[in-house]
Structures are given as structure tokens and as C-alpha cells.
Fold these 2 entries.
Entry 1:
Amino acid sequence: MRDTSGRQLSGPEASTVTSNRRRLLVAPAEDRRSFRSERRDADLVIVGGGLAGTCAAITAARAGVRVVLVHDRPVLGGNSSSEVRLWVLGATAHMSNNNRWAREGGVVDEILVENTYRNPDGNPLIFDTVLLEKSVAEPNLTLLLNTALTDVEMADGRRIHRVSAFCSQNSTTYDIGGSLFLDSSGDGALAFLAGAAFRMGAESSSEFGEKFAPSDDYGHLLGHSIYFYSKDVGHPVRFTPPAFALSDLTSIPRARNFNTSEDGCRLWWIEWGGRLDTVHETETIKWRLWQVVYGVWNHLKNSGEFPEAENLTLEWVGTIPGKRESRRFEGLYMLRQDDVFDQTQHPDAVAYGGWSIDLHPADGVFSEKPGCNQLHSRGTYQIPYRCLASRDVDNLFLAGRVMSASHVAFGSTRVMGTSAYCAQAVAVAAALCVRDSRRPADLLEPAAMAELQRELLRLGQHIPQHALSDSDDLVRRGHVSASSALALGSLPVDGSAVPLAEDRGQLLPLPAGPVPQFGLRLDVSEPTTLQVELRQGRRPDDFTPDRVLSRRKISLNQGDDQLIKVDFDAHQAEAGYVILCLLANDQVRVRVSDQVVTGLVPLRHRGDQPENPDTGCPGFEFWAPVRRPEGRNLALTLDPPVLLGDPAAVSNGVDRPTSATNAWIAEFDDRRPSLSVRWDEAVRIGRIELAFDTDFDHAMESVLYGQPEDAMPHCVRDFRVRWGEQVLAEVRDHHQSRWTLVLDDVVSTDELTVEVDAMNGAAPAAIFSVRCYSDPDTRILRHEGGARP
């Protein structure tokens, strides 16, 4: 479609163009008028275009589902949008706990990787454009912005038939029908109007045996926050506060925490409203938060205590609050505290969480209590599908903040990375339901659930303790080989050394059997004794190192660049990760390496979580990574070398490190790394999928945080795919986790090769998976004219 100037249009504006030739419209008086009405129909109607709703809409559209996304704001993203400006986080938890390689996969990963590539400085406006671009690119997705749900029409009392919505910007009422509906609206507007059971506030400790359930003194709801940004304009700026600004900050116990160096969502603790109705009194809460923000800025500018504020201006203040909690709707199961801390295994696991159980006092910034109480699980935990399907409305899914969880468990699931991840699972479930004319609850049948989990894994949706078993993948029938495979014998010294002012560690995967001898290079300021330990978790993929396999005390003489060798005389019962721990010693510095390798992470002991029987909180040590560029692997040797990059790993069904690297990794000195699959007889290939390493251990906060790189150094940048001498694809400047080639003509071959020409950094070539399919179109639904994923 083109507009009246001949300009080619795309996206939502294409459907709203009208001629500019009419100069005058004369409309006679009438008794009354109605707004223009448009009818829309879809397979899946999504209400709420926060990050959860957006990721669900894109995922479903790519699966072939016809989607209408109704969102009451001008941009997508909800709390992550430029209107609120909260960073996206999930199980990575700012890389502060023991959740290794925990960044969510699928579409939310694609969005975060793309935002990091385009926007490493974290500009929230750029993040808006990434979400919008991904959404309008999908032909199966109809996006209705600035459009608010107004009514629901039910059928047979247990099914939603149609919904009504109104857009104030174009004075249009929409009548939207669908076979399935998803509420990702935050406040649960759709589920509420449909009559679904919900909860608001905290359960008593006795209902689910939750020891962390809050007291009345603490409060039973989380409040809202509003953030602000400041800017140095290079000359003095005067500030006259509005009359409604809070004039006396003595009512804010944490006023001493305000300073001129923090803004945006680092001020998450400017929170209030947990003792009010966080749905119907949101405007009251917003005004109170505005009073606080402008009062704080007045204090920073005019109290005389902050001379560094002289050239600062107030660049931006949120116009809507970021909501934490309101209604939570009852699904087929309600997640609870024990599911998080016990890392419960669910047969219908479709997602995972890993943020702490993070509860805040209801009085927020006016409370004498700490701004939050965070209790961590020892690792990620599974989230079951049953939490995402309504108990009461047969064709209603729940995602985002409204998913089925107790108030305590919600303290972890509420963060946007986790919410979006669950919503992606809903999107694939919806595609299966539409294809087979099923209700959401029907997918709990074991064969249907196995198919849902398989489809999610194929899309990059990692599910803890699950691997993809895909009989359609031709690579599983082939023989995989490579130009080389990394057997790690050493990580080279780069000349730098870090002090052992705190415990340091190196996360390494080891095979079953005798533990190799380790070599370390140390600078020692005076004679001392260094304690070195080899630790592991409870499972091969558990990164909380509370089991000591062996410990050694090493006597050291004064001197720089000393090579010490450590023999632990230990035996690894089964293959899995261990942590080589160097305990703190002020007389020692350990040499480090600039070498980046898939599946290796340097760690530091950043503190402990004490066990607390009163809250049910488990006790353990936090061994967390240091962000690059400061975070570098220890320069070490292993004798004998350890195979890290077995080519066979590309067909094991796991696309990130878990109990092993799960990747083919080339040797450091391989100048022309390549990976080949050969078949005993020719196979027909119509689709090729590759999974690359974009460092799933890196949190990739969407805003405010500055990221150390735009493209992850572990990721393949330039590569080609060929069969025989024929090049099927040649790719340059790649930076995403996944790449797909859909062939116009199916090829018949007994060999396929991926050749790596360059990486995005100094890492050796690495690939998590190669998958080949005969059918070029793997969508669950195949609407005529729909786009390939």
C-alpha cells in the first residue's frame, strides 16, 4: 500500500490511510452518534502488550497463529517501555546469584540480544523501536495500540466469545472475536471481566505452608514506582518546584540514600501504594509518587548539600507508574514458595524462573524497613504450564503478572524476563490448541504436553532438565565431525593479575574419572599459605558449590609469576561442572587470561545467604561472575587436557551449557574451523537451523546498564553453509543466538558443512546445535499466505 504522496507504507499505518482530496465534510445534526466500529477475528486475542504480551504475540504469529494484540499504551513493552523505563531481567538476576547461563531463550532472547547489539548504552527509546519492529514484521499479527479493553462477551458461561475495545486516538471501537484469549494486561482486565477467580494480597502462612508469607505490619501488596532521569547541560540550572512537590523529606527514612549519581530504575525503591487498591487507586499512588520525585529533586537542587547538582536538569519523569502487583488469577495450579526453594520438578514444566523471592514493604519509601527482602533459590526452578491456564474460563490463558502464583512465589515470577518466557510457552500452546481444536487444559494429557515441550525446545525455549528429542531432525541420523575440537590444556596468561582480596573461582566442566592436575600462576608479596578447594553442587548442572571434593593448602614463597601445581587426588563420579576455588589471601594475586571460551566462567564469592528456618530460606554461598571486561578467566593449565568441544554435542538437544558445554568448540589455533554432518545415504534438506553462543550467562539489562560489548565475543560472526562445493548461504555480521535458512528448493545431499570465518570476539569458534529438516516450513499452523518463521 502507498499513501497519497506515493510513499510505500508498512506496519499498522498501512491500514489507516485515507485520501487527502476532500476539503470539507459537512455533517448534519443527529439525535446521537456512535463511534466507528470495526470487526476483527483471530485465532488468539491477546490483551496487554507489555513484554509478556509482545513476546507471546510474536511467537504465536511465527507459529502460524492469527493474532490480534490489544494494548492500551502508545508503545509496547509495559514496564520495559520508554514510558516507565525499567530494565528487563529474569533468572539472570543481574548475574548476582548462582544461576549460570540462565538468560531466557526464544523471542525474549532475540529481543535482548538485538537491543544489546543496537543499544549497548541502554536508551529506552531504542528499546521501544526493537519491540515495534519485531511486532510489525509479522504478517499474522494485528497490532492495536492505544486501544483499551472495555467489555467481554461470554459463551456458555465458561468461554470468552468476543471482546470490545476502544482506541481514543482514532475514535474507533473494535469488536474482536477469537477461539483463544490471553490476558497479559498486568491488572488482569480480561480475566476480571470474564469472571475468573483472582486473589489480591498475600495468603496466610498456613494456606500453602509458606514461612515467608508477610505479616500485617509488613503489608500484603507490592506498590508502584516512578523513576526520573537527570542530565548535565554544562551550565547552572535553576529549579523551582511545583506546588505539589513534597517539601519535607523527613518522612522518608531512606532520604539519605538519594544522590545525584543515580537515576532511572536504579531508584526502584521510590515505591509506594501497597496499602491501597493497586488497581483502582493507581492515580492516587501516581500523584503521591510525583510528590516524592519532585520533592527529592528540589532537595538535590536547592538544599545546598549537593553542589555537583548545579548543572543538572530534570530531563524526564515517568508519567505512569511501574506496577509490581495487583490481581493474580487462579490457574490449574498455583505456584508457591516450596516450588521455588525446593526446585520442584513438574511434568508440565514449560519455563523457569530464577529471580529471588523479592518482597517489599507495603509502605515503600515511607517505611522504616529495608526496601526489599530477597531470598534466593540455589538455582533456577521450573514453572508448570498449569499456572498459565485459567481454572474457570476454558479458553483463557494467563501470563505476565496475572499468572497463577501465591503472593510469595509471585515475588519471584513477577519480573519481566520470567513473565515473557511464560508467555512464549502460552503462544506455542495456543498454536497446538488451534490446530487440534483443543482447550488449554487438554494439553496436560501426557502426549500433548510432550509435544508442547518439544516445540518449545525447538524454538530455543530452554526448560531445565529437558533436552530436545526430535525424530524429524536429520542430523541425528548423521555422523558429525569437525576440523578440530577443543581439549583445554591451558588458558594463556595476559600479563594481568587480580588480588585475592576475596575468594575467586573458575567454573569448569570435567569428565567422570580422576580430576586433572591444575596449574596456576601467582604473584606472592610475602611467604604465606594459600587454600585451594575443588567444589561442586548437588547435581552436574547445579552451580551452588557446597560440596567440597578436595582441599589443599599450598605453601608459597615470595615472588612474582610463580607456577604452582595442585593435585587434588579426587575422583569425579559423573561428568559435570566443578569450581576451582582460591580462598582469599591478601598476600596473593592470581594471573588471569583474556581468552574467552564457551562454557567457562570466572567467579567470585560475593557473600552468603544465611539459612533461616523462620522464613524457609535455604543457606548457601553466592559464587557469581564478574562482568566483562573486568571478569576474566583464571590463567591455568590442566593435565591431562579436558575435552570441552566434542562435535557430537551439536545433536544432543541442549542449546546452552548445563552439565557440560553442550557445544562444538574448535581449537584455539584452528585457522579454518568447520563442522560437517555426513549421512550414509542422501537426505532431502529444506530447512537448516543453527544455534550459537550469545553468552546466556550475561544478563543484557535492556536499559540504563551499559553493556561491555554490542555483539557477544562467543558468537559466530561470519560463516557459510555448503553442501559439496555448492554454497547454500554466506552470512556476514551475524550476532544472534539462532539462525535459520529456509531453502527455496529442497536439496538432496549426503554432506553438509558449516565453515566459520570469524567470531565477534577472541573466542574460539563454537556452535551449540545444527538441525536439518526435510520440510522447509515447521510452523504448527500453516495459514495460506502466512510468513515463514
Entry 2:
Amino acid sequence: MKNLFAALCALLLPLLASAQFSLTGKITDQQTGEALPGATITINSLAISVTSNAGGNYAFKNLKSGNYTVAVSYIGYKTAQSNVSLTANSSADVSLTRSSTLTDEITVSATRASAKSPTAFTNINKQEIAKNNTGRGFEYLLEQTQSTVVSSNGGTGIGYTSIRVRGSDATRVNVTVNGIPINDAESQGSYFVNLPDLASSVKSIQVQRGVGTSTNGAGAFGASVNVETNTRMDTAYAEINSSAGSYGTLKNTLSLGTGLLGGHFSVDGRLSKINTNGYIDRAKADLRSFFVSAAYYGKKNVLRLNVFSGHEKTYQAWNGVPEDSVNAGNRRYNEVGYIASTNKFYNNQTDNYTQNHYQLLYDHQLSDAFSFSGAVHYTKGYGYYEEYKNDQAVIKYGLTPVVIGGMAITNTDLVRQLWLNNDFYGVTYNLKYNPNNKFTAILGGAYNEYKGAHYDNLQWTQQSVNITPGYEYSRNDARKTDFNVFGRAEWNVGDVLLYGDLQYRRINYSFLGFDRDLKNVQQQSIMNFVNPKVGATYDVTDNSNIYASLAIGNREPNRNDFTNSSPASRPKSENMKDFEAGYRYSAQNFSAGINGFYMLYKNQLVLTGSLNDVGGAIRTNIDDSYRAGVEVNGSVRITPQLRWAANATLSTNKVKNFTQYLYNYDTGALVATPYAKTDLAYSPTFTGASTISYQPIKNTEIAFISKYVGMQYLDNTSTQSRSLPRYFVNDVRVNYNFSLAGVKNIGLGLLVNNIFSAKYLSDGATYPSLAGGQVYNYNYFFTQAPANFLASVNIKF
């Protein structure tokens, strides 16, 4: 180790000793001379950027002598480039001219936090997305952001993947694409398996933790994820991206674009296919998708049509691996689809779903101060999952036992399909008023409708029950309307930014539930929510600020909460008060931040094990629960070649006066156990992430990526035997780019996941019960693959 350290020092000392200079300047409007704060200044050859401060000033420090191309971009202005020969400390002012054509960025600006908004957020740009886009689920692009835990059902990151932010699962994470809601209207989750390789068509992502700014769709408690798809490319291009790796993983993507035609038109397209066998037994995934975008750019308006679609066929791995199997050393065992009579597994135990998205986006610059952005959208989803069921009572399927040879057929093995066929459509809009750099106001909102048909079919029965394949034994329909309107303003008064945000949301949900007489009939629930948010940011220096905010959020119960209840047992909506306060510092070679949060819940919905008045397992409103913690992050460029970025979250997540109910198989009764104060499930006390990147030569990067997740309980009882052990997993990523005649860029990549083959469990579930006076846990875990790799090649023309 001493020799290695000495060698490293010898390698780095010449770099540290080389002459270094600064480059400073001011960004202004060419016509008015007004300073432009928030402009992005980039030195492309070094892949470093800074942002102009409130006075329009910027600074690069510790640059080696040489020739640099500096690019300056700002929304609504033409991008400017200048060449700088640096032999001493230098200054380069840049005046930007307003663009003759409108840009797309105002589409997502209404639901995004600005650079100084008093809330906790992380921005991920196109360059960062490209580095990590190897075909794994979309959630893995967010894995290195604060307070985030990502999991894969199949163990390789492909197929069904999931995310939790601050302990909140995907049903409490709002997701929008170009301001249009993606969360399922009923379950409230986001299933990126339905949109494989979406990342290849994404320009930027913003993750806001906590309630965040007002947005469209499901209420955000853990976080909101705002996705912006690709916008204008001025030159024609073609790109081929392929990767292959462990467990039969193969990804192929073809992207094409016309560039700007005639100064006004562009067309872009992408076609993708991803396959894997999965780490878990039979956890295969066959994923296909496409993305097509056509746009018209005028002097005052932009019209864009996006059409994208995804299809997935995955073997069911969502039940995890039984604890007994994990303890016995078989971490890949998948018990789903087992046929007891043949001691084999059903080979079509699959999930099959297609989702088609249509977005028509329109932006219009009404005047220098006013701009409008609106969209109409339609999503069509349809598909089913097929499963083999052993020894099923025919009366459960609405059938009368058939008598054959004097014997009644009361039970049979069968294959069933559970279908979902839904339509989601609506409009979103926002009007932005920005008379100067001191004040911005936005009026926005959306109206969306959802229609979902749920129906179940029998495809095959082992015993004759006098039905034909495709017999429908169950059907129910749901309809949901979601209206919201919000107003938001940011006002700069000296060094202080004042922030206010108020949203009204109304939901009308019609579903098949139980009435007061416990008869299964169509029901309706109407909910009205008011979500206010206030905050302030104070500029301590040109590079740092402190902020504080209070946001109130409300969420409706999900589909199962409604359908498995009657008016007497129907749960209440959830309420959360989110207090955030922090400090941010940003400079060229160093940035850091600390954020404290306190999230106080009223009527949080949690599973207790109890049954409601119609006999269904329910989530119960808990009066008092909270999350409190501190998030820290930092990034430092140690040398021009060496950079380290890291973040960590330390939190306490508690529920008070919680009662768990365990089913007693001996008596058939539920046994209640009260707890005064326990930990909330799936809420680690500590999470951390680190990325150390090194550029040994030009256009080459080696990154060592680490993730630590503390112990998590599988339920709300703080029971050690029902928990996920802490884990620490490390990846290595290598990228090398070069060009050849006729080829703009050839990129070679290698990603080695879990390089030290840590045996870790990223997620799980527990179903405890009582028998013979003893508690049996029945734990299931999502085991993750040992060391595995993905090698990639990217060719751009």
C-alpha cells in the first residue's frame, strides 16, 4: 500500500505543479446590456461548466495554459461560442442575442425548481445520463442521488425495477415526462419497464425530494421526478448503441435525426430492443420500444409531436426468493409457476404489457414578458399477466361444480390471465410571466381522465368445468378525473428570493367496491386538496445561499384501498407537512450542500395485517408518523483529471402507536400487538453514494461507483428477524471515446456491477403469522447478482 501511495503521488505531483490560471467574465443581453444570471458557461474539451451568478458573472479557476472553446447558453438566447488562448489570468465577457426561434425548455420549466428555489433538488444532464445508460431500468439513473434506494426484481437491473426516496416507494414519487403525468392513476406507481430505454431519448432529469414544487398528477411525498425528452438538434445525426453482458443481456439502440431543416423543422427517432435471462431463475425479460418526435420551430412558437411506445414480456420474478432458500445458499430460486402435479414450472408464467404515448406540445412567446406552454396527451395501455394456479376451488371463479361419473369436480389446477385495458388522456398548461430577472410568476395546471377495465379470464383447466378458453369470470371498470390548478411566484428582493406556491387539486374516482350492506356495487369518491408552499432563499455570497421552506401535500388512497373497503372502513387521504432548510455552495472545482428535512405525516397509510369489514387486507391510517434527517452532498475536482462526488443521508423514520395484527392459524382470529414507537418500514437510517472519476488520458474516464444502504425493516415493528441487512456495493465504469474518418465519435464502455460480488438483498417482503404459539415470518427477498458486466459500443455519425 505504501508503494502504491507513493506511485500515485508521483503520478499526480506533475499535474499539481503545472501552471494554472483563471478565466472570468460577465454574461449580458446584447440589446439591453442587462446581466443574465443562470447562464451556463461550458469548456467542452474539459467537460466542465459553471453558472453565472446574480450579477451575470462567472469564473473558471485552476485552468492550465492552452486554447479553449467556451460555449455560453441561456434559455431564449442563441448559444455563443468563443475561442480563448489562456497564458495568464484572463477575462472574457459575452453578450448574447435573443434567439429568432423559440426553444423547448419552457415546456418543463413550470414544474421544475429554479436554481435558487428553496427546496432540495438534483439536476441530471444529458452527459451524465449517457454515461450510465447501459440498458438497466430508468431508476438506476437516479441511484446516486441523495436518499435513494433502487432495486431489481430479476437481480440484474433489467425488467421490473423500483425506487424509494427517503423511504417512500414509487406510489409516493410523482413522475412527469414533459410535464405530463406518468404515474398509474389507480395504483399510483410508475412502471418504467413499460418504457424500456426511455433514457436514450431523455435530455435532462430533475429530482425534487419531499413535496417539492406543484406538479401534475399524483401527489409527491417522497419525491417528484421531472423528465424532459430530447429537444432540438441543429445538425443531422445517426447513432448506434449496443451493449452485451452477463446473464444473456443484450441491448441494441438505433437513433436518427434530420437536424434543423429549412430553419424550422426537425424529425428524430429511436428504436430499441433489450433482452436478458435475469439472475433469478426464469427472470427473463424481452423489452422493445420506439420514440419518434417531429417539431416545428417558429419565431414565436414551437409545436412538437412525440409518439413513443414500449412493450414488455417478463417472467414473473416479483415474489422474490424465499428466506429458506437464501439461507440454504440458493439465491436464485423462483417458486412462482410451480406445478405440483408434475414437479415442474409453468413456462408461460409471464407479464405482458404494451403502453403507447402520444404528446402534442405547444410553446408560444406571447411577448417579451409572457410565454405559454400547453400539451394534449393520450396514453393507451393494455396487457395481462398469466399464471398457473394449483388446486383452485371452482366456486371462486363463479362456476358450479361439474358432476362427472357421480363425482363433483370442486377443485382443479388452472391457468388464468388477469387483464388491464386502460386509457389516459388530458391537457396540461402553464402561463409564465417574466418581466425581468427579478420576478417570475407561473399559472399552471392540468385536467386528466382515466378509464381502466379490469377483467380476468380462465385459459385452461385440468379438470373439465364446462367452459371454453377465454372464459371471463370477473370484470370491473374504473374511471378517474384529476383536475389541478396552481400559481407560483419567485421574487428577488436584494439578496433574498421570496417563494410562494398554491395548488388546488380535485379527484373524482369511480370504482367497483362494497356498499354499506357489503354488496359489490360501483362506488364513487370525491376528494379536494389544497397544497400551499412558502419559502425564502438568501444569497450569502455570489456562490452560496441558504434557504428554508414549508410545503403541505395531500394524497388520495390507491385502488386497493378503495376496492377492498366499504364506506364504513374506507381510509382517509394522507397529509404531510414538509419542512426543508439548507445551505448550497457552488464553484467551478468545488460544490457542496447540506439539507435538513422534517416530514410530519397525518393519516399515513400503512399495512398492519388487519382485515376490514369485507375481509380484505387493508392499509390503515396512522395518526402520527414522521421522517427527519440531514442530507449532505459534495463534489470536488482534486486535479484537472481527478474528481470525487459523494452524498449521504442520516435520518430517523418513526411511527407512533402502531398496532400489528397477526393471523392465528390455530384459532382463525387476528392477534393484536401494540407498539409505542417503531421504525417505518423500508427506511434505512443511513444511505450514502460515492463516485470517484479519473481521466488518465484525453477522452477516457474510469469511475469507481459505490452505494451504501443501511438496515431496513420489512414491516413497522422494528423486528430484527424481519429486516434487510445493510449492504455496500461497488461498480466500475470505463469509457473511452475517439473518432475516425467519417465517424463523429466511437465510444467504448465497460460497466462491471457489484465488482466484489457482495451477497446483498436490495428489497423484500414479509408475511408473518401465528401457529402453535409461534410466529412464522415467511420472508421473501430480492437477491442481486454477483459480479456481472455490460460492455458497450456507441457509434455516432
